[in-house]
Amino acid sequence: MTFAIxxxxxxxxxxxxxxxxxxxxxxxxxxxxFEDTFAKVASGEAQLAMIPIDNSIAGRVADIHAMLPETxxxxxxxxxxxxxxxxxGIPGSSIEQAREVHSHIHALGQCRKLIRQHGLxxxxxxxxxxxxxxxxxxxxxxxxSLAPPMAAELYGLDVLATDAxxxxxxxxxxxxxxxxxxxxxxxxxxxPAVTSFVFRVRNVPAALxxxxxGFATNGINMTRLESYMEGNEFAATKFMVDVEGHxxxxxxxxxxxxxxxxxxxxxxxxxxxxxxxxxxHGGSNN
Length: 286
Description:
Layout (H helix, E strand, L loop, with lengths): L3 E5 L5 H9 L4 E5 L2 H9 L5 E8 L3 E2 L3 H4 L5 E10 L3 E4 L10 E4 L1 H5 L2 H6 L3 E4 L3 H11 L4 E5 L2 H5 L3 E4 L9 E9 L13 E9 L5 H11 L4 E7 L9 E7 L5 H13 E11 L2 H5 L6
Parallel strand pairs: 1-2, 1-3, 7-8, 7-9
Antiparallel strand pairs: 3-4, 3-11, 5-11, 6-9, 6-10, 12-14, 12-15, 13-14
Helix pairs in contact: 8-9
Protein name: Prephenate dehydratase
EC number: 4.2.1.51
InterPro entries: ACT-like_dom_sf, ACT_dom, Chor_mutase/pphenate_deHydtase, Preph_deHydtase, Preph_deHydtase_CS
């Protein structure tokens, strides 16, 4: 049986690279949108989805926070990808010939130094790897692409510059999603764990402060707290949270008991192993 992992974007994108790092022996399936990526797993055409959730420079990925609570899938893992960009041109071209640099808006914003250094005109493309494909099709030495390194080989382009990003710590956190199944028990997940969930606060004074107080008093590390509006309500009505720990841990049990007093519609999105990157950068000790 061939296993497949779906991702949003074109071959050679950072999401594609994340797939090959986590599941090198699986078929990586490109999708046009995040909705299509979720649907591939829901339909059984793919066993996993690789979804970027936030970037250390650009912040959260648009729309994902709204999609996760509505999907039937659940988070089963996380992966941190160090983001690298190369400047790519057609075979035989040089950086001196380049006039326009094409890429996704975030990539252009993360490589400003190189763009200014060579006096290039930034042109926004829908996808980093897609810009490499377009440069390959245009066969114009004045047009170059900022794309992940693997795009060079895929689209037959020359690497004109490596490590083009301004910040060498640039990292994107991805989550892996699969069909919904029972949450793994503590015995099944004995190491450091992460629990992701969403909730709504009750309409009482200081509800958020009181809801989250249990995590502080029980010594639980909260690594993500995001608010967003729901429907046409112009207020922060929903919150998405990542905490380090398993729901069966005694401290987590007490924290969730306090959370329930001041919230409604708590939904656990996933309980999964903490990634090695998290642990090596001062993360979970649970």
